[in-house]
Amino acid sequence: MGYPAIDQPAPAIEASEWISGKPEEENGFSGKNVILEFWGTHCGPCIAAIPHLNELVATYGSKDTLFVSLTREDPHIIERFLEKRPIKGGVATDREGAMFDAYGIQSIPHTFLIDSQGLLRWHGHPTSFNAELLEEFLQTDNVPKVSEPTTSSETVPAVTPDTLFFLKIDRNASDRRGESLGIGDEQFEAEIYGYRVADVISSLLDHPHTRMRIEGKEPEELLDVELRSFHPLKVKVARERAVDVLCDMFGIAICRVVEQREGWALTCSNPQLTDVSDLGGGMSTGGFNNKFTGSNLTIDQLADYLENSMKCIFFNETHLAGKYDFVLPVKTFDQTRRALEEEYGIKVESAVREVEIVILRMTDAAIGCAGDSPPRP
Fold first, then answer.
1. Which range, of 130-134, 188-192, 276-280, averages the lowest pLDDT?
2. Is 74 exposed, middle or buried (0-12, 13-18, 19+ CB in 10 A)?
């Protein structure tokens, strides 16, 4: 089912339960402009968009212009999340997924603009729903065209509670390239588009390329991989099973060795961090405008992100055991390094340590081997 048509009546807004901002009247959306946001606590791009949407609510929210954020999660998960990551406007649950189905939601976040006549006027990514668009709409009733994100890294899949395990591996048939991961207490979701098999294995094993070595000829073809798993299957097991399938398909043997490597050590003698472990919910990452946003991250997960983005090895030597929220500039290494020390009390210093290296041995059975692989971007 696709999205509702523009300039046609939008599906009625109905919620399983309101967490905050419930309309006072039974037909509280009648005659109102409504900005409807579909999101999830495990979704990094959703969390990254919250400050932007909160700014819009603060500027344009009124009795005639309402903002509603809708998720499929349990109320207690949302309530804990909102304690330290407040969302302005109304927040509600759609436990049975009726609204997600009615609006054709396949990935989140996704925003809809509904006018006072109940007509759908615009929909797209929340970061494209900017102040200029909303201002022009409220003043003139016109909706200007805006650009949309071009990679899947700006969204994560919206799944149903009935899905227990799903794995899909296709040859990449387009120029789509991107990666998104959502890790919850009892679920794992991954969309990886336009990457070679070694890159996919690196993501699924949560083992960065800086700690991997490829022996033999890697298949050159690009893959699209989707993986979704839920309780009772452990996240680690789901990832390993997907890797096993890829290794069988492409004739890859995996082994591990320990080597001395140079890198950067994270240390912390005076932490300026708030532990959010008690809030529950899943780890999520996202970012735009050269900023990284991470929620419910362990320092190990932060180090993994830094290692993948900076292309150099990081060692977690902070001895911090909690989960934390981070917002970091990532345009340059020096910016990130300075922000970690000044805002979070985490120092970044050069170091040499023993590192476990994962070796991917490509056998003659590998699919599509043809000459040396081109260098990674």
1. 276-280
2. middle
